[in-house]
Amino acid sequence: MREKPAGDIPASLAEALRAAKHVAVLTGAGVSAESGLPTFRDPMTGLWAKYRPEDLATPEAFERDPRLVWEWYEWRRGLVAGARPNPGHLALAEMERRVPRLSLLTQNVDGLHQRAGSRNVVELHGNITRSKCFDREHPAESWPETGDVPPRCPRCGSPLRPDVVWFGEALPASALAAAWDAAERCDLFFSIGTSGMVQPAASLSRQALSRGATVAIINPDVSNFISRSQVLIQGPSGRVLPALLEKAWPESGTIHVE
Description:
Radius of gyration: 19 Å
Number of domains: 2
Oligomer: single chain
Number of helices: 10
CATH class of the largest domain: Alpha Beta
CATH topology of the largest domain: Rossmann fold
CATH architecture of the largest domain: 3-Layer(aba) Sandwich
Distance between the termini: 30 Å
């Protein structure tokens, strides 16, 4: 199907959303970028301009210089704390309230979906606001203030790290299983703000398509997704999703997600 601009929501997609019993949504960095959070493709700024994210987000980097990696993630946590959910996040939370079941599968680690009100969120890459120890993966919500950077696990003394999936690490088995189950059981699947190139999340839309679900791609650049079997809408989620909700439920009047 040819791509459609943000203001041109296919009636068939609005009808599919209204009729859906189980909606699965995969979100990527583009959704968070609309809240002002940089993606891994964006050059870093300030003190971090001389580094590449790929050189810091690995177990090897942490073993080599744990202070450097911890302080970079503290900087990123500050960005997340200052960000707010955007209309795309809020529209997905509203969508969850309107359909019988919605599974929100996210590659983002910022927790903005939860802050927007989404409840059934599967975090494929973890959450930057949480910490765990490097050696045994003990979760840590607090720790003694000893001045160590990074802090130490209060249970075993291992250095703490962010609870995110680094390059070279496997996705959490429970999250991946939940994502595959949603892709196999849904009747409508959205891929939003993601390049469609990172595995295994990139295979989820194909799995949904193979099981007979309607698959819709919402992204400013849809060139990687050209397929006659998918609905392609070119535009940011913050414009497309509120428009889709209003088209699916016109009797509700204007749906405010600002």
